[in-house]
Design brief:
Layout (H helix, E strand, L loop, with lengths): L1 H4 L7 E4 L6 H12 L3 E4 L18 E4 L1 H8 L3 H8 L3 E4 L6 H7 L6 E7 L4 E7 L9 E3 L3 E5 L4 E6 L7 E9 L4 E7 L4 E3 L2 E3 L1 H14 L6 E8 L3 E9 L8 H9 L10 E5 L12 H9 L1
Parallel strand pairs: 1-2, 1-3, 3-4, 4-5, 15-16
Antiparallel strand pairs: 5-6, 6-7, 7-11, 8-9, 9-10, 10-11, 12-13, 14-15
Length: about 290
């Protein structure tokens, strides 16, 4: 399905640079075998194009955002290699505003992916650059979607053995082929009756921090509150308190983001807890705060 969506051909060159212990890396191997791609396999690294010889043109690869950002921060030759490719898919983590702006400058088609292990990697692609860019995810062939009573995405496909999978992803259905991802249902903060999707607000806060040259990881969580039910709390990782004015940040957020999303409290933590795939483990990090 991916091969068809991206118009890949027999003997195209694919770079396998993701950990093949996980589904995204495994599926790169499967696509290569099914469609007879020439596969060049390299140890996962922040900038996989460093390992590609100058005389080898890659047609297709899958990356995480950190790798794509590292390519932009590398040499011009590596960006030139990227621009010669037929397609690049990016997944596994959110794409920042800064990276999105860099992607728009590329000639090579870049796609964000939506999927999970249960759907055998992705079931939808979102074009991030060029004349065909789209703010919504577009389904691959033979995939049907719907919503449950929580507003969460349901998926039925040949990839799910035609069984309907219930996800925890709250979405806005645009039509039968497109949807907008809003956030995880199990992360929604209900503060005073207002439902807040922390992932969207986190992206806004990250952009504001970068604009003000404050670089740090962060997560937004909900903690019990007698009046609101849950209060919005911002956790910041590994910053030096002397160089980071929380009161200035509070004022900045109050004047920029939704009133309901402005954190009631701020906590600075030495280090978050991460999963094996490099994502913040929200539950364990929150438990660490409460302990």
């Amino acid at each position: 399905m991916t091969i068809g969506a991206l118009s890949l051909q027999k003997n195209d060159n694919a770079l396998v640079c993701l950990n093949t212990s996980y589904i995204a890396g495994k599926m790169m191997l499967v696509r290569g075998m099914v469609s007879h791609l020439n596969m060049y396999i390299t140890e996962p690294s922040s900038n996989p194009l460093v390992h590609v010889p100058n005389d080898l043109e890659i047609d297709f690869m899958a990356l995480v955002p950190l790798q794509l950002d590292a390519i932009f921060n590398g040499s011009k030759d590596e960006v030139d290699k990227l621009n010669k490719m037929k397609a690049v898919i990016v997944g596994g983590a959110p794409i920042s505003r800064q990276l999105s702006e860099k992607i728009k400058q590329l000639r090579c088609p870049i796609y964000a992916t939506y999927g999970m292990t249960e759907t055998v990697s992705h079931i939808a692609l979102k074009r991030l650059n060029g004349d065909n860019s789209n703010p919504f995810y577009h389904l691959l062939d033979r995939v049907k979607i719907g919503q449950d009573d929580r507003g969460c995405l349901t998926i039925n496909s040949i990839l799910t053995n035609h069984e309907t999978i219930l996800t925890n992803d709250v979405v806005n259905l645009i039509n039968e082929k497109e949807f907008e991802w809003l956030g995880r249902a199990d992360l929604v903060i209900n503060s005073g009756g207002v439902k807040i999707h922390p992932e969207q607000t986190e992206d806004q806060i990250k952009d504001l921090l970068i604009d003000n040259q404050w670089i740090t990881n962060l997560i937004l969580i909900g903690l019990p509150d007698e009046q609101l039910g849950e209060k919005v709390v911002l956790l910041l990782e590994g910053i030096q308190r002397s160089k980071f004015n929380l009161e200035s940040l509070r004022c900045l957020l109050s004047s920029t983001i939704s009133t309901y999303s402005v954190p009631k409290e701020f906590y600075v933590m030495d280090e978050f807890i991460y999963t094996e795939t490099g994502k913040v483990n929200r539950k364990q990090t929150t438990d660490l705060l409460e302990s």
